[in-house]
Design a protein that fits this description.
Layout lengths: L3 H12 L8 H10 L4 H20 L8 H15 L50 E2 L11 H5 L13 E4 L4 E3 L4 E4 L5 H10 L18 E4 L1 H6 L22 H8 L3 E2 L7 E9 L2 E9 L18 H14 L7 H12 L3 E5 L6 E5 L21 H6 L12 E3 L7 H4 L3 E7 L2 H6 L4 E2 L4 E4 L9 E6 L23 E5 H9 L8 E4 L3 E2 L3 H17 L8 H14 L1 H20 L25 H26 L5 E3 L2 E6 L30 E8 H9 L4 H4 L12
Parallel strand pairs: 2-5, 5-8
Antiparallel strand pairs: 1-4, 2-3, 3-4, 6-7, 7-8, 9-10, 11-19, 12-20, 12-21, 13-18, 14-17, 15-16, 15-17, 19-20
Helix pairs in contact: 1-3, 9-17, 10-17, 14-18, 15-17, 16-17
Length: 707
Amino acid sequence: MASEEELFANIDALLAEEPQLPPPAERARLREAAGITQARLAQALKSTTQTVKNWENGRSEPKTPRLEAYQRLLNGWAAKYPAHGAPAAAPAPAALPQQETPETFTGPAATETPEPGTAVKDRAAPERPARTAARPATPSRRPAAKKAAKPAADPRFPHGPLAVLDGDGSAYGIDGIVLDCPATTVPELVEWTLKESGLGAAKLNRYGKDSDPLIVLTAAAAVKLGLPERLEGHEQRRSLRLPEDHPVVKQVAKAKWQLTQRGFGPWARIYRKAQGRERQCVQLAILSWDAVDERSWPGVSEMEPADVARVLGVYAQRVITPRGSTAVSGLELMTALRPPTKAVQDPETGNWVSGYNAGSLGTEPMDPAPPEATPEHPVVVNSGWTGGFLNEEAYQWVRSVETLTDEECTLPFAVGLDLNTAFLAAAARLTVGLSAPDHFHGPKFNPKIPGSWLVDLSHIGLDPRLPSPFTPTGERPTGPAWYQTHTVAYAQELGYDVHPIEAYLRRETGAYLDPWHDRLKTAYVDTLADLGVTRDLDDRQFLAAMERHKQVDPALAAVLSVIKATVKGGVGKLRERPQGKSYKEGERWPALERPTWRPDIRAAVISKARVNMHRKLNNMAKMTGLFPLAVLSDCVVYPSPGESPLDFLPYATSGKPQPGGFRLGPTPGLAKLEGVQSMLWAVDLMEKGLNPARHIKGGDAVLDEGE
């Protein structure tokens, strides 16, 4: 396929004899100013070529000078062929009725036929007309106001990012679309997906790659394609895969397709090596093989295919097309938003080559400093390191029963508050290291430099009714230990001197997680708003809306759960531990070959989240005199005179929440009600050494460790 520069060269060659037109450098600047990209140029190439020929042959003459005419031409392209994600120049037409939706997809994706070999022909439009979905959309599914504001769809992927295939050949996509899929084998399904389905998603960053189409198979579809309905075995099901001699695996190989090293499991990637810029890859997910984990995708595997498509489709549009577990998707989102490379021009040859993309983690894995690694890591084992490790983990703290006062014990209720996506809030404007760690002895502490510091904080004594901010258990440190920068900086914030003994610091730094935070925050807030929990609600209205939001739309409630799991899983994946009984200490495991295996970044997120929690606890004690009973990660339990957080949270005389403490609201970092129990219940658990925050909701909460 012709490159963008070659396409531009075709036009420039026609313009070469026109002395009144701007020089090549100026034309390149004008193209960039107009936002002309390869795909949009490809659509405009034919008509533009004819326009320029008319100028050359004198059949038409621009009424304005050549420079203005060229700029006007570019602006015309920009208006007629808007970039993906940008609104079209013309106002959007009125929304069509639900039953007329498939008519949008019966014709080609673009009104003009592009030149052969251009980027527009990445996917062909389906030959068969789309059929309407069997079930009508719910009122909250496609609000008219939101549809009008929707960005222009990518013409290469008219049917969205994914489809759910049922046993009767119906492929359910987003917005109620149902396509006919005639495939009876996996290779046929792959060919149909790439050539006829119109599925896929545009890249999230200009230097990234388009998302490969995802086909989700129901149990009936899996059986129809020759796959077993379930994967069974003695090991954990997520690690199972089809044996290499299975007929379907042989079919794939015979058709000259390949599987990744994960093999044919619940999430299977089938591909051929890319030809130029053309990727040939399809992701499969098999529902009956537990591809959609119940803990992260509650109730989704039991939904009807159209509803499964809706849940996964909303997630794909707001976050990323799933490529595996929510942890895998969380990590893939980081890379998609911060691609490791970009095209740069070689000054010697003038050729475009792959180069480092500033602000990313690059393409090569990086070994951590010994205290940042895990005990089994080769850096530790091979060096004989005995100097200790970072212990930046989420809180697991229960207050001593002896510190409870009579006044606290007579309060009737224990109320749990949960911070919305605390790790996501901590990732905002978080400076992390981008280069390898350097070792320093006796450094002066600098809160702006990310890294690991060996420092003694045992002399800092705080109120025993609060957890220590320096340890996950909340116990006071007993001597020198390794801490991430945010933890040491908080000791300074509390007014204490810190004198590091040694440190591992990084010279190159950046806010690597900022785009990841921004996209997930927007997805979280928008999904809550679709469920009726908006930012304009007062605290009473917010609590009422949160109480009923899961019943408003169970499918969107599932999306909300997946977004939260993506945050936690993505952070945990930064320090993925070795898996399997055959692993031997000191060996490298597959995760270490990723540039995104960065335990120091995980430590930075968790350290900041824990410090944020302690700051709020400390401010609450100063403002209200209230002390928590227990903390578990982002959940805190307080004694309360009433069943609502409104009965003990601090408010100004104006009725507005006091800054610095816990505040209710729908955005990351703000709080919501987690659960209410009796104070007697909470004290009974505390006396048994159990954590009330784990059970305040009425079940057994999962510790949000970022694992």
